[in-house]
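Obj: model holo form, ligand = alpha-D-glucopyranuronic acid.
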Amino acid sequence: MKTLRFAALLLLVASASSSLAAQTPAPPPPSRPSTHPAPTAEELAIQQACAHDRQRLLNLLGIQQTRPPVSNDPKAPNATNYDEQRANPYPNLPDPLKLLNGKPVTTAKQWFAQRRPQIVAAFDHEIYGVVPAHLPQVTWQVVSTTPETFGSVPVVTKRLAGRVDNSADPRITVTIDMVLTTPAHAAGPVPVILELAFPAEYQVALQRPRPETITPGMGYYGQSWQDQVLARGWAFAILSPNSYQLDNGAGLTAGIIGLANQGKPRSLTDWGVLRAWAWGASRALDYLETDKAVDARQVGIQGHSRMGKAALVTMAYDPRFAVGYISSSGEAGAKLYRHIFGEQITNIAADREYHWMAGNFLKYAGPLTPADLPIDNHELIALVAPRPVFIGAGASSGDGYAEPGGDAWADARGMFFAEVAAAPVYRLLGKNGLGTSEFPPIETPLITGDLAFRQHAGGHTPVPNWPTFLNFASRYLHAPPDPAAPQ
Ligand code: GCU
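Output (holo structure tokens):
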């Protein structure tokens, strides 16, 4: 079913793109197809390669069997739980402010010097995998520079290619694709919002004439996020994480992971795709540090769903990112693994998603359980501290599959609880949490602290939360003052 949702997203992106030139009125969001198209021979080959590689990891772990993923069939014995009353069998979270020797962490210095590295090590080893110590150089090339008008704003759009040195294995070519649009008449370097885009979204981002009124596949909600960003005098960049690491297990012997391994399969602690996508986002920031049109100390990162997971991992590992919008990231993102609602570890550990993670992660799908994890995702959020982060999702009614109007699979409450449990770290560092531990009424923005949250009333889409995120981010990101503006 999850593939159905993703396939539907891609289909919608593709079908929306043909009508993108139409400006008004905006069409209603198209309905999702209800049947799987039959897999092509190529897709079948990919599925087989994934199953084979996952089994190889299970063999390395000495695991005979994992528990089945939760099912979206409400009648199945392993049906997904959408009942909050049954969602908390593991109420005890690891304490982010307790060292492994049991001593409390009471100072910022202790957090950074002792506790934070312990949490990073656990995420490296057990969850996302370890980035190789020596990775090839990336050389950025400006492929094209185009003055144009975006909406009514004069801008300059640059297509960029980060070429990865592949002298270690010339069979594997890796390029990081990105496009950067900056206001043409800014008074100085401007803040940037960097989006991690799905492949079809990235294709749409390159199209001209550009889509004016639709965020393809994610429903119609008025002005695009890019227009909203430009209206604040900021720039936007769109990165294609799939350009440097494909989104399946069959691709792990290629892309940056394969290049670093010279085409060999991963070990149990080698990095997974989320960590690789985050690596590329850091390389994108390396480029932004060299571009005089932008202020690389003021870069916000955004991602939705699996790209939301990657955006949160990026923020956790790279302290140069100033602010984040983490949309519907769900399981393996901002949601607590110990909150048993919506997607579960067993789904992430199955053939279609295991590649996001380190091989070691598979053991928590059986025999181990979420209670055995040395960390939980409140600690992933805590790694972002003291920097501001906005976590958003859609409605908890409607699973996002049978009822596409909701986003329950991503589990807004599980993400909210993770933020609440991350707040003590923010407070230790002199910052503010959400200001409440009560789950707020739907569509209530919590944006006065440095941790922020909002659940919108729609489905699996980042669009309705963009204005709230940008309000929140504008407390931290500032365009250079316009010399023409009245004093
Ligand atoms: C599936 C998957 C989620 C993921 C989502 C997406 O639904 O189970 O973990 O976030 O795809 O990326 O769209």
